[in-house]
Amino acid sequence: MRNSISENVKRVRESIAEAALKSGRKPGDVMLLAASKTKTSDLIREAIAAGVDAVGENRVQEMMEKHAQGAYIGAPLHFIGHMQSNKASRIVGVCDIIESVGSVALLERIGKKAISLGISQNVLIEVNIGREQQKSGIMPEQVSEMLDAAAHAEGVKILGLMAIPPINDENENNCYYFDKMFQLFIDISKKKYDNVSMEFLSMGMSDSYTDAIRAGANIVRVGSAIFGVR
Fold this sequence. Notes:
Layout: H1 5-22, E1 31-35, H2 41-49, E2 54-57, H3 60-68, E3 77-79, H4 88-91, E4 97-101, H5 104-117, E5 121-127, H6 143-150, E6 156-163, H7 171-191, E7 196-202, H8 209-215, E8 219-222, H9 224-227
Parallel strand pairs: 1-2, 1-8, 2-3, 3-4, 4-5, 5-6, 6-7
């Protein structure tokens, strides 16, 4: 018999607590984000009722349909998927945080839309930490250049970094990339850019979130461990 979503959330919370304590932090310092791609509005409401901290969607159209159904009421909404520039303006003001901003052009487009709405949109900068050609995000050495641009950008607020490391079966490989991201996060935090607040480091999914937390992540994007395997 499959576990209920509430049971799964409880189990994930216990694992988060253990990993957080091992990294010298409190369990409440880590945000549990339910990655809800392909999940129905009813399942998302169930996850929110079970106590997840936020919900994350990968696809703009799917997110907008569920948003119209009231699926995310009671939890902050993050966009965590690849962002096409021509769709960026649709989700500005809808999401609490857009996590997958991987270019200056995209950042400027989001800012322009936010200004037109009279708001400031919170974003994370997506880093292609594994230097994979098929993935979005900026290269690690380009982060400083992008944050220089962000310092003068209007309509946006940079709240941290996000990464999706290469898929690995070996925990050691996952930890290598998580450690690199955390060091980048710390280095940026020391530089004190204008309009940049290094509050969040988003990395780690269902098969790697405990390793990510031990490395320093404070947002983990968990899908199958909450909703079950697709």
